[in-house]
UniProtKB/TrEMBL annotation:
<feature type="domain" description="PLD phosphodiesterase">
    <location>
        <begin position="267"/>
        <end position="294"/>
    </location>
</feature>
<dbReference type="GO" id="GO:0060627">
    <property type="term" value="P:regulation of vesicle-mediated transport"/>
</dbReference>
<keyword id="KW-0677">Repeat</keyword>
<dbReference type="GO" id="GO:0004630">
    <property type="term" value="F:phospholipase D activity"/>
</dbReference>
<dbReference type="InterPro" id="IPR015679">
    <property type="entry name" value="PLipase_D_fam"/>
</dbReference>
<keyword id="KW-0442">Lipid degradation</keyword>
<dbReference type="GO" id="GO:0009395">
    <property type="term" value="P:phospholipid catabolic process"/>
</dbReference>
<dbReference type="InterPro" id="IPR001736">
    <property type="entry name" value="PLipase_D/transphosphatidylase"/>
</dbReference>
<dbReference type="InterPro" id="IPR025202">
    <property type="entry name" value="PLD-like_dom"/>
</dbReference>
<protein>
    <recommendedName>
        <fullName>phospholipase D</fullName>
        <ecNumber>3.1.4.4</ecNumber>
    </recommendedName>
</protein>
<keyword id="KW-0378">Hydrolase</keyword>
<dbReference type="Pfam" id="PF13091">
    <property type="entry name" value="PLDc_2"/>
</dbReference>
<keyword id="KW-0443">Lipid metabolism</keyword>
Amino acid sequence: KPEEPQSYAGSPIVVDTKHRYFVGKDYSNPYEKDFVELEKYAEDCIDRTIVPRMPWHDEALVVFGKVARDVARHFIQRWNIHKCEKFLYEDSYPFLLPKTYDDPDDLRVKNWAEFLEARPFEVDAQCVRSAGPWSIGTKIIENSIQNAYIQMIDAAKHYIYIENQFFITIADDSTVKNHLADALYRRVLRAHTSNENFRIYIVLPLLPGFDNVNAVQAVLYFIMRSITKGDGSLFRRLEKRGVPPHNYVSFFGMRGHDVLMGLLVTEIIYVHSKLMIIDDRMAICGSANINDRSLLGQRDSEFCVVINDREEEDGVFNRQKVRVGKFCGSWRRRLF
Protein backbone atom coordinates (compact mmCIF):
# COMPACT_ATOMS: atom_id res chain seq x y z
CA LYS A 1 0.00 0.00 0.00
CA PRO A 2 1.49 3.33 -0.97
CA GLU A 3 2.14 5.79 1.85
CA GLU A 4 -0.45 8.48 2.29
CA PRO A 5 0.84 11.98 1.64
CA GLN A 6 1.73 13.97 4.73
CA SER A 7 -0.99 16.39 5.76
CA TYR A 8 -0.47 20.02 6.77
CA ALA A 9 -2.54 22.35 8.90
CA GLY A 10 -2.96 25.07 6.32
CA SER A 11 -1.93 25.46 2.71
CA PRO A 12 0.03 22.61 1.13
CA ILE A 13 3.76 22.95 0.52
CA VAL A 14 4.93 22.22 -3.01
CA VAL A 15 8.46 20.82 -2.97
CA ASP A 16 10.94 20.24 -5.76
CA THR A 17 14.62 19.41 -5.49
CA LYS A 18 15.73 23.02 -4.95
CA HIS A 19 12.76 25.11 -3.82
CA ARG A 20 9.88 25.05 -1.37
CA TYR A 21 6.72 26.90 -2.34
CA PHE A 22 4.28 27.97 0.36
CA VAL A 23 1.12 28.09 -1.73
CA GLY A 24 -1.47 30.67 -0.78
CA LYS A 25 0.69 32.53 1.71
CA ASP A 26 0.76 36.33 1.70
CA TYR A 27 4.39 37.35 1.21
CA SER A 28 5.14 40.62 2.99
CA ASN A 29 8.53 42.25 2.76
CA PRO A 30 8.26 45.96 3.62
CA TYR A 31 11.78 46.60 2.35
CA GLU A 32 10.44 45.76 -1.11
CA LYS A 33 6.73 46.51 -0.96
CA ASP A 34 6.96 49.93 0.70
CA PHE A 35 9.09 51.45 -2.05
CA VAL A 36 6.69 51.69 -5.00
CA GLU A 37 6.42 54.55 -7.51
CA LEU A 38 8.79 56.77 -5.55
CA GLU A 39 8.70 59.31 -8.37
CA LYS A 40 5.08 60.09 -7.37
CA TYR A 41 6.06 61.40 -3.95
CA ALA A 42 3.48 64.22 -4.06
CA GLU A 43 0.53 61.87 -4.59
CA ASP A 44 -1.44 60.45 -1.66
CA CYS A 45 -1.60 56.66 -1.84
CA ILE A 46 -4.57 56.53 0.55
CA ASP A 47 -8.12 57.70 -0.13
CA ARG A 48 -8.74 59.81 2.96
CA THR A 49 -12.51 59.84 2.33
CA ILE A 50 -12.64 56.06 2.83
CA VAL A 51 -9.66 54.93 4.92
CA PRO A 52 -9.57 56.18 8.54
CA ARG A 53 -6.17 57.33 9.73
CA MET A 54 -4.81 58.09 13.19
CA PRO A 55 -3.54 61.70 13.44
CA TRP A 56 0.24 62.07 13.64
CA HIS A 57 2.31 64.82 15.16
CA ASP A 58 5.79 65.11 13.65
CA GLU A 59 8.13 68.10 13.95
CA ALA A 60 10.80 68.94 11.37
CA LEU A 61 12.85 71.89 10.19
CA VAL A 62 14.47 73.21 7.03
CA VAL A 63 18.00 74.62 6.97
CA PHE A 64 19.94 76.82 4.53
CA GLY A 65 23.54 77.84 4.06
CA LYS A 66 26.61 76.05 5.37
CA VAL A 67 24.71 73.56 7.49
CA ALA A 68 22.69 72.51 4.43
CA ARG A 69 25.99 71.65 2.76
CA ASP A 70 26.79 69.36 5.71
CA VAL A 71 23.41 67.66 5.29
CA ALA A 72 24.20 67.06 1.63
CA ARG A 73 27.64 65.67 2.43
CA HIS A 74 26.15 63.19 4.88
CA PHE A 75 23.81 61.97 2.15
CA ILE A 76 26.70 61.72 -0.30
CA GLN A 77 28.77 59.73 2.18
CA ARG A 78 25.94 57.26 2.76
CA TRP A 79 25.19 56.98 -0.96
CA ASN A 80 28.79 56.26 -1.91
CA ILE A 81 29.38 53.53 0.69
CA HIS A 82 26.26 51.67 -0.41
CA LYS A 83 27.23 52.19 -4.03
CA CYS A 84 30.50 50.39 -3.23
CA GLU A 85 28.75 47.59 -1.37
CA LYS A 86 25.78 46.88 -3.64
CA PHE A 87 26.12 48.57 -7.05
CA LEU A 88 29.84 48.99 -7.62
CA TYR A 89 29.63 48.14 -11.33
CA GLU A 90 26.20 49.67 -12.00
CA ASP A 91 26.65 52.82 -14.07
CA SER A 92 23.07 53.85 -13.37
CA TYR A 93 24.13 54.46 -9.74
CA PRO A 94 27.02 56.93 -10.06
CA PHE A 95 29.40 58.01 -7.34
CA LEU A 96 28.51 61.45 -5.96
CA LEU A 97 30.96 64.27 -5.33
CA PRO A 98 30.28 67.23 -3.01
CA LYS A 99 30.06 70.62 -4.64
CA THR A 100 32.75 73.17 -3.81
CA TYR A 101 32.15 76.86 -3.20
CA ASP A 102 34.75 79.57 -3.76
CA ASP A 103 32.50 82.29 -2.36
CA PRO A 104 30.51 81.70 0.87
CA ASP A 105 27.81 84.01 -0.50
CA ASP A 106 26.98 81.28 -3.01
CA LEU A 107 25.49 79.33 -0.09
CA ARG A 108 22.92 82.01 0.67
CA VAL A 109 19.33 81.28 -0.31
CA LYS A 110 17.89 84.45 -1.77
CA ASN A 111 14.57 83.09 -3.02
CA TRP A 112 13.29 81.86 0.35
CA ALA A 113 10.09 83.89 -0.11
CA GLU A 114 9.04 81.48 -2.87
CA PHE A 115 8.57 78.59 -0.43
CA LEU A 116 8.47 80.12 3.08
CA GLU A 117 5.70 82.21 4.59
CA ALA A 118 8.05 84.23 6.80
CA ARG A 119 11.69 85.24 6.86
CA PRO A 120 13.97 82.41 8.06
CA PHE A 121 15.75 82.83 11.38
CA GLU A 122 19.51 83.27 11.70
CA VAL A 123 20.97 80.53 13.90
CA ASP A 124 24.15 78.62 14.59
CA ALA A 125 23.59 75.03 13.48
CA GLN A 126 25.61 71.83 13.69
CA CYS A 127 24.87 68.41 12.21
CA VAL A 128 25.18 65.39 14.51
CA ARG A 129 24.56 61.75 13.74
CA SER A 130 24.61 58.13 14.77
CA ALA A 131 26.74 56.32 12.24
CA GLY A 132 29.38 53.65 11.86
CA PRO A 133 31.06 51.15 9.56
CA TRP A 134 27.88 49.69 8.07
CA SER A 135 26.18 53.02 7.33
CA ILE A 136 28.92 55.43 6.26
CA GLY A 137 32.01 53.23 5.97
CA THR A 138 34.04 54.74 8.81
CA LYS A 139 36.26 52.66 11.08
CA ILE A 140 34.92 54.34 14.20
CA ILE A 141 31.41 54.55 15.63
CA GLU A 142 29.96 58.05 15.88
CA ASN A 143 27.34 58.77 18.55
CA SER A 144 27.39 62.57 18.46
CA ILE A 145 23.58 62.72 18.74
CA GLN A 146 23.71 61.16 22.21
CA ASN A 147 26.60 63.44 23.15
CA ALA A 148 24.63 66.50 22.01
CA TYR A 149 21.55 65.51 24.02
CA ILE A 150 23.63 65.01 27.16
CA GLN A 151 25.54 68.29 26.79
CA MET A 152 22.35 70.25 26.15
CA ILE A 153 20.57 68.70 29.15
CA ASP A 154 23.54 69.53 31.39
CA ALA A 155 23.48 73.14 30.11
CA ALA A 156 19.73 73.69 30.70
CA LYS A 157 18.91 76.53 33.12
CA HIS A 158 15.10 76.84 33.13
CA TYR A 159 13.34 74.00 31.33
CA ILE A 160 13.70 71.02 28.99
CA TYR A 161 10.92 70.23 26.52
CA ILE A 162 11.09 66.83 24.81
CA GLU A 163 8.84 65.32 22.15
CA ASN A 164 9.78 61.78 21.13
CA GLN A 165 8.28 58.59 19.81
CA PHE A 166 10.13 56.61 22.51
CA PHE A 167 11.56 57.15 25.97
CA ILE A 168 13.74 54.14 26.72
CA THR A 169 16.70 55.09 28.88
CA ILE A 170 17.42 53.14 32.08
CA ALA A 171 20.33 53.59 34.49
CA ASP A 172 22.74 50.70 35.17
CA ASP A 173 20.78 48.29 32.99
CA SER A 174 22.12 45.15 31.34
CA THR A 175 20.00 45.72 28.21
CA VAL A 176 19.60 49.49 27.77
CA LYS A 177 22.95 51.24 27.42
CA ASN A 178 22.32 54.89 26.47
CA HIS A 179 23.05 57.58 29.08
CA LEU A 180 20.22 60.10 28.71
CA ALA A 181 18.64 58.91 31.96
CA ASP A 182 21.82 59.81 33.84
CA ALA A 183 21.85 63.30 32.30
CA LEU A 184 18.22 63.98 33.26
CA TYR A 185 18.79 62.59 36.75
CA ARG A 186 21.86 64.79 37.30
CA ARG A 187 20.05 67.92 36.12
CA VAL A 188 17.01 67.39 38.36
CA LEU A 189 19.22 66.56 41.33
CA ARG A 190 21.18 69.76 40.76
CA ALA A 191 17.98 71.78 40.56
CA HIS A 192 16.70 70.29 43.82
CA THR A 193 20.00 70.82 45.63
CA SER A 194 20.17 74.45 44.47
CA ASN A 195 16.44 75.07 45.08
CA GLU A 196 15.92 76.08 41.45
CA ASN A 197 12.60 76.43 39.64
CA PHE A 198 13.28 73.91 36.89
CA ARG A 199 10.93 71.78 34.79
CA ILE A 200 11.20 68.89 32.34
CA TYR A 201 8.25 68.31 29.99
CA ILE A 202 8.21 65.03 28.05
CA VAL A 203 5.54 64.34 25.39
CA LEU A 204 5.14 60.71 24.26
CA PRO A 205 2.58 58.65 22.32
CA LEU A 206 -0.20 57.39 24.55
CA LEU A 207 0.32 53.95 23.01
CA PRO A 208 3.19 52.57 20.91
CA GLY A 209 2.38 52.48 17.20
CA PHE A 210 2.71 48.76 16.47
CA ASP A 211 0.12 46.31 15.19
CA ASN A 212 1.69 43.44 17.14
CA VAL A 213 0.49 43.03 20.73
CA ASN A 214 3.83 41.64 21.89
CA ALA A 215 5.68 44.65 20.46
CA VAL A 216 3.28 47.07 22.17
CA GLN A 217 3.75 45.32 25.51
CA ALA A 218 7.54 45.21 25.12
CA VAL A 219 7.80 48.93 24.35
CA LEU A 220 5.48 49.85 27.23
CA TYR A 221 7.52 47.62 29.54
CA PHE A 222 10.77 49.43 28.76
CA ILE A 223 9.14 52.89 28.84
CA MET A 224 7.65 52.24 32.28
CA ARG A 225 10.99 50.89 33.51
CA SER A 226 12.52 54.15 32.29
CA ILE A 227 10.00 56.36 34.09
CA THR A 228 8.76 54.74 37.32
CA LYS A 229 9.24 50.97 37.52
CA GLY A 230 12.41 49.51 38.97
CA ASP A 231 15.52 50.83 40.66
CA GLY A 232 16.95 52.15 37.39
CA SER A 233 13.93 54.33 36.57
CA LEU A 234 14.20 58.11 36.70
CA PHE A 235 11.51 58.58 39.35
CA ARG A 236 12.77 55.80 41.64
CA ARG A 237 16.34 57.14 41.59
CA LEU A 238 15.14 60.65 42.44
CA GLU A 239 12.93 59.37 45.26
CA LYS A 240 15.89 57.53 46.79
CA ARG A 241 17.70 60.89 47.02
CA GLY A 242 14.69 62.56 48.63
CA VAL A 243 13.68 64.43 45.47
CA PRO A 244 9.92 64.54 44.68
CA PRO A 245 10.04 63.79 40.93
CA HIS A 246 6.60 65.27 40.14
CA ASN A 247 7.90 68.70 41.20
CA TYR A 248 10.32 68.63 38.29
CA VAL A 249 9.29 66.08 35.65
CA SER A 250 5.95 65.81 33.82
CA PHE A 251 4.85 63.40 31.09
CA PHE A 252 2.15 64.16 28.54
CA GLY A 253 0.33 62.58 25.60
CA MET A 254 -1.76 64.07 22.81
CA ARG A 255 -5.41 63.64 21.82
CA GLY A 256 -7.72 65.26 19.31
CA HIS A 257 -11.47 65.74 19.76
CA ASP A 258 -14.44 66.65 17.61
CA VAL A 259 -18.16 66.14 17.17
CA LEU A 260 -19.13 63.32 14.81
CA MET A 261 -22.81 62.73 13.99
CA GLY A 262 -23.80 64.63 17.10
CA LEU A 263 -21.49 62.70 19.41
CA LEU A 264 -18.28 63.83 21.07
CA VAL A 265 -15.39 61.69 19.82
CA THR A 266 -11.68 61.61 20.63
CA GLU A 267 -8.63 59.97 19.11
CA ILE A 268 -4.98 59.54 20.03
CA ILE A 269 -2.57 61.86 18.23
CA TYR A 270 0.49 59.72 17.64
CA VAL A 271 3.68 61.59 18.57
CA HIS A 272 6.38 60.80 16.03
CA SER A 273 8.63 63.82 16.69
CA LYS A 274 12.28 63.61 17.73
CA LEU A 275 12.71 67.05 19.26
CA MET A 276 14.16 68.74 22.32
CA ILE A 277 13.98 72.48 23.08
CA ILE A 278 15.87 74.02 26.00
CA ASP A 279 15.42 77.46 27.59
CA ASP A 280 14.00 78.95 24.36
CA ARG A 281 17.62 79.12 23.17
CA MET A 282 18.70 75.65 22.02
CA ALA A 283 17.03 72.84 20.11
CA ILE A 284 17.86 69.51 18.51
CA CYS A 285 15.62 67.92 15.89
CA GLY A 286 16.04 65.03 13.49
CA SER A 287 15.46 61.31 13.16
CA ALA A 288 16.81 59.93 16.45
CA ASN A 289 14.49 58.35 19.00
CA ILE A 290 15.34 58.14 22.69
CA ASN A 291 16.43 54.51 22.70
CA ASP A 292 19.55 52.46 22.06
CA ARG A 293 18.79 51.84 18.39
CA SER A 294 19.05 55.55 17.65
CA LEU A 295 21.65 56.73 20.15
CA LEU A 296 24.44 54.16 20.41
CA GLY A 297 25.80 54.76 16.90
CA GLN A 298 26.48 51.25 15.68
CA ARG A 299 22.81 50.39 15.12
CA ASP A 300 20.31 52.58 13.23
CA SER A 301 21.73 55.39 11.11
CA GLU A 302 20.34 58.70 12.41
CA PHE A 303 20.79 62.40 11.67
CA CYS A 304 19.91 65.52 13.68
CA VAL A 305 20.61 69.24 13.64
CA VAL A 306 21.54 71.18 16.78
CA ILE A 307 20.27 74.77 16.80
CA ASN A 308 21.56 77.72 18.86
CA ASP A 309 19.76 81.02 18.38
CA ARG A 310 21.60 84.12 17.18
CA GLU A 311 18.62 86.48 17.18
CA GLU A 312 17.26 87.34 20.63
CA GLU A 313 14.15 88.88 22.15
CA ASP A 314 12.81 89.60 25.62
CA GLY A 315 11.29 86.75 27.58
CA VAL A 316 10.24 85.85 31.13
CA PHE A 317 11.31 82.82 33.17
CA ASN A 318 10.48 82.42 36.85
CA ARG A 319 9.00 85.95 36.82
CA GLN A 320 12.31 87.41 35.74
CA LYS A 321 13.09 89.08 32.45
CA VAL A 322 15.66 87.21 30.37
CA ARG A 323 16.88 87.21 26.78
CA VAL A 324 15.65 84.24 24.76
CA GLY A 325 16.11 83.05 21.19
CA LYS A 326 13.60 84.07 18.54
CA PHE A 327 13.57 80.76 16.67
CA CYS A 328 13.59 78.29 19.58
CA GLY A 329 11.21 80.47 21.58
CA SER A 330 8.68 80.75 18.76
CA TRP A 331 8.94 76.99 18.13
CA ARG A 332 8.22 76.18 21.77
CA ARG A 333 5.26 78.60 21.92
CA ARG A 334 3.76 77.03 18.81
CA LEU A 335 3.96 73.59 20.43
CA PHE A 336 3.34 74.14 24.13
